Amino acid sequence: MKFMMKYLMLNCKEATFLVSKKEEGKLAFFEKMKLQVHLHFCKFCKMFEQQTNFIGHNAGQSHLHDHSTLSDATKEKIFRFLNENETLN
């Protein structure tokens, strides 16, 4: 039994590494098992997993936002303003 527990238990450093690896979809079967055992007992690593999932989900949606740009006229106004004020310094 001790051997089995020793084999299945991870420390938090190993668990957070596996959480990050899981986000990339690269966990082996036994890594998944070991991680689930650790997450069952460790609320801090469970919270890290939730935060990692949240960030991964929201980062994946960043391309959905409209990336508006300034009009050429507005860019020209800003450029002129900066050039005029540069001579004042």
How would you describe this protein?
- There is one protein chain.
- This protein has 89 residues and is an all-alpha fold.
- It has a domain of 60 residues.
- The mean pLDDT is 85.
- Helix 2 crosses helix 3, helix 2 packs parallel to helix 4 and helix 3 packs across helix 4.
- The protein contains five helices and no strands.
- The N and C termini lie far apart (76 Å).
Compile the SSE list and pairings:
Blueprint: H1 2-8, H2 12-23, H3 29-41, H4 43-60, H5 72-86
Span of the ends, CA to CA: 76 Å
Percent range for helical residues?
Answer: over 70%
Count every helix, treating DSSP H or I runs of 4 or more residues as helices: 5
The biggest beta sheet reads: none
- Uncertain ranges: none
Based on helices, strands and strand pairing, what is the structural class? mainly alpha
Question: What is the β-strand count?
Answer: 0
Helix and strand run:
HHHHH
Shape, please? rod-shaped
> How big a fraction of the residues is strand?
under 5%
Question: Over the alpha carbons, how many angstroms does the gyration radius reach?
Answer: 25 Å
Mean of all residue-level pLDDT scores:
85
What attributes characterize this protein structure?
mainly alpha; rod-shaped; 5 helices; 89 residues
